[in-house]
Amino acid sequence: MDMTSDYHVPLSLTVLAGIFLALGAICMLIVAGDIIWRRGWESMMWIMIPVYIINAGYMGPLTLYLYFKYGRPSKPVSSEMGQKATGHCHKPTDPEDLEKVADHDLPDSAPHSHHEAHRKGHDSAHHEAHHESHHDSHQHHPTPSTDPSTTHDHHAHHHHHHSSRPLLATILIGVSHCGAGCVLGDLVGEWLVYGAQPRISGQTLWPELLIDYGFALLFGIAFQYFSIAPMAGEWGPRSVWRAAKADVLSLTSFEVGAFGWMVAYQAGIWDYRLDMTTWAYWWMMQVGMLLGFGTAVPVNWWLIGKGIKEPCA
Length: 313
What we know:
Blueprint: H1 11-37, H2 48-59, H3 61-71, H4 95-105, H5 114-133, H6 135-139, H7 148-161, H8 167-196, H9 205-232, H10 237-269, H11 279-305
Helix pairs in contact: 1-2, 1-11, 2-3, 2-8, 8-9, 8-10, 8-11, 9-10, 10-11
């Protein structure tokens, strides 16, 4: 990309670029507005809020479909017992949270008559006697296995087969994580290169690829970490390592499509003449992200299928 070039983008191309960029911005506002309206931070995993908003900027209608079909938060409740996702993407599964909600719905009044108190005592005694009669037979039943590998396999089976969304949607939402990291990494990297003007072989394109990739990894692993850690209930180096294992390969496959297109349009189509301050440049970046999303789908399918990447992440 030659910043000294006097090349001027045709007006028709600028208008076309503006249309697609505006469409992405509108989709971002739709998702952000709906999350704010529904107070999504109370009922969905918070890291999914920026993931959906950022991906709407380049995936547009597809992200809108995924969000409204599978990721939209529930309507806000009037009581202070708002749902809060602590082990799942959108719904509360923490036993303490569920118990609080259940207790909140129970009436506070005590029995109002001696007859009702007597009936409750009789039922309790009958239940205790019934429980005692079956105690001996129950105590000889085999105890479920507590082997860690068995427990892990059961958790993985439950996670995969009891999800309310199809596998393809799970894959696409998984790709959205590395997509959000790539978008933020490219934004930071592009503007750093634009300001510092580092060059390799006389061009800034090659430093762009290196710097963009570094920041994309940083943001991508962060997005993955804040998805894995709440679900596992483990905040620390182990979750960082799991996030890195899940996201490095995923994000690299994403950048294959994105960077391939960057080289194609900057070096091949415009011969390094397209300035970063033009709308056409960022439209091309938008197209690159779309292509990167496509190249990341097969890898995410494999990662999730092998259990390396959390399907809810």
